[in-house]
Design a protein that fits this description.
alpha/beta, eight-stranded mixed β-sheet, two-stranded parallel sheet, 50% helix, 13% strand, globular
Length: 366
């Protein structure tokens, strides 16, 4: 029931998935609205059923308010998963409510501090994974460490990238760049078995130099929205360019096939949705403006996450990271304490008689 054009788009996309992907679909929502949309099509396929939920979570609703709705389509869907009647959930609705409801109903995987939104960005290669893309605004180094591991496992298992290269998003590639969070996270990541390559910049996301970009949710979401805006801008500029003259229109007709192939490569609808990794289940967040093809591909992403058993690999991977994260945090704390002790010691040092005499003659330290 979520999304800019719900429930029409969700129903159309689900029917496409049932037909093309061979998956069983449960449409969860208000019965009348769903059956009205299904009536526009020639019969309901046997692999699709309707599960009733009386309440709807709006796109602008707060997560706390969403949790109060006991019979929302989102909560009912997560309950189906908890009961073993569904293997994955796809929603184009409120992403904050999706995360809060998933956490409330399913909980987190063992050793996961915070689930992360993972987005695959189209690139010259197989795509670059961004983790986290908006779930966590304020993070600690160990959170970024976990985001890196979850992103690496997804890239390896689902995108079929052997030994994914993991980098921390920063304002420069040099070791001295970044802030306290990125420096601490970089130190911890370098102590793991991940293929960590150090700092990467925003421009590296589209190159073939990195496969998994790690960042806090605030930075990741700003980067993602900037990319979306840039992509829309480029499309409009090209449209204007091809409409300048008869020759430019002719040029478009001659190159139309190649242009469509290039557009398909960067079309966000081809990539479906963003997995919410770290939940004790498979949840895919589709864009609020998704069309039926995007919904179908979000369901494909959900099917792939289940087929590749991503969550089991995350649990196994995190078992080996627990000690690294704890040691890293303790090391940072000890370093800060040592600096503080040295400053306190310097302030408390007694001055020698010669020093006092020199200062009194010169009128003090100035």
């Amino acid at each position: 029931m979520g999304g800019d054009r719900a429930p029409k788009v969700a129903v159309d996309g689900a029917l496409l998935a049932a037909k093309e992907l061979g998956v069983q679909i449960a449409l969860v929502g208000q019965k009348e609205a769903l059956e009205k949309e299904l009536a526009r099509h020639s019969g309901k396929p046997p692999s699709l059923e309707v599960v009733c939920a009386s309440q709807v979570i709006t796109m602008d609703e707060s997560p706390s308010s969403a949790l109060k709705k006991k019979d929302s389509s989102m909560k009912v869907a997560f309950e189906l998963m908890k009961q073993g009647e569904a293997q994955a959930i796809v929603s184009a609705g409120n992403s904050g409510a999706m995360m809060a409801t998933g956490m409330f109903v399913l909980g987190k995987l063992p050793r996961v501090d915070r689930p992360a939104i993972l987005v695959v960005v189209p690139t010259l290669g197989k795509g670059t994974v961004i983790s986290d893309a908006g779930a966590n605004v304020d993070c600690k180094p160990r959170h970024l460490l976990q985001f890196g591991l979850m992103g690496s496992i997804y890239a390896e298992r689902v995108l079929c990238i052997p030994q994914p290269r993991v980098g921390v998003l920063s304002n420069g590639e040099e070791e001295g760049k970044g802030n306290d969070l990125t420096r601490a996270a970089s130190e911890q990541l370098s102590s793991t078995a991940l293929n960590y390559i150090g700092y990467v910049e925003g421009r590296d996301i589209f190159s073939k130099s990195v496969d998994v970009v790690v960042c806090d949710g605030f930075t990741g979401n700003v980067a993602l929205k900037t990319m979306e805006g840039l992509a829309a801008f480029v499309v409009e500029v090209l449209k204007e360019g091809f409409q300048q003259s008869v020759l430019s229109r002719l040029g478009y007709l001659l190159s139309r096939k190649s242009l469509l192939l290039a557009y398909a490569r960067v079309d966000h609808t081809e990539y479906g949705g963003a997995p919410l990794l770290g939940l004790d289940g498979v949840a895919i967040i589709a864009h609020g403006g998704s069309d039926p093809k995007a919904i179908k591909n979000a369901i494909r992403v959900a099917r792939e996450a289940v087929a590749h058993d991503v969550n089991r690999h995350i649990v196994e991977g995190l078992e080996g990271l627990g000690e690294v994260a704890e040691e890293g945090e303790n090391k940072i704390s000890r370093g800060i304490w040592q600096q503080l002790k040295s400053k306190i010691g310097a302030l408390g040092e007694k001055q020698s008689p010669d020093q006092k005499g020199r200062e009194s003659k010169s009128g003090g330290k100035g």
